[in-house]
Amino acid sequence: MKKLLILFALLAVIKVNAQPKYKVQNIPPINPKEWDIPKNDTLDYEFGSYQGKKALLIKRKIDNYKSASLAYPKKLIFKDGIIEFDLAFAGKGNGYIGLAFRIKDAHHYETVYFRPLSSATINAIQYMPEKKAEFNWWDYEADKYQASAILPANGWFHVKVIVTGRKLEVYVNNAAKPAMVYTSLDPSLKSGSVGYWHGNSSIGAYRNLTIKTLE
């Protein structure tokens, strides 16, 4: 019995030591000089609030189904780890809001985005790699790129994304189980920045970006 207890104790120690170790990566406050934030004739942003919470508000002035824009710190480098943030669709009409990671530039990155108006359907979450000047979501409409989740139409929700190698796990609102698991991330997009992704939406609200990288 004593030997068995010792064996269990050793296994427990091994299990604890085998858990991945993460360190919090400091995210600079959103400063237009240090962040790449889109602003042009069709897109604008402001540091405002939504439903009583301070947030970055990204506003698209003209509806365009090929639109996709990023806001991210220029010097951040991310490969594997945990990304968390809060977001909300704060406008009317289309709602496509989310996250970009391993960002090389405005047209080369991985994205997980959410469709709050498609809550509880297979279209609620979509993953895709972006490597073209125009956002070609129609090439990634197969079920393997999408997942169901319960999302508020216009309210805040929390997202946690775990990236390890070519594996992606997406958790919504602190759920114990992932809403989406995808195991074939694009091998050509290995590292880069992390930031907010804004699709064909009138207004998206984004806040509390936190990153933990593997040590």
UniProtKB/TrEMBL annotation:
Name of the protein described by the UniProt record: DUF1080 domain-containing protein
Species whose genome carries this gene: Mucilaginibacter ginsenosidivorax
Keywords for this protein: Signal
Stretch forming the signal peptide: 1-18
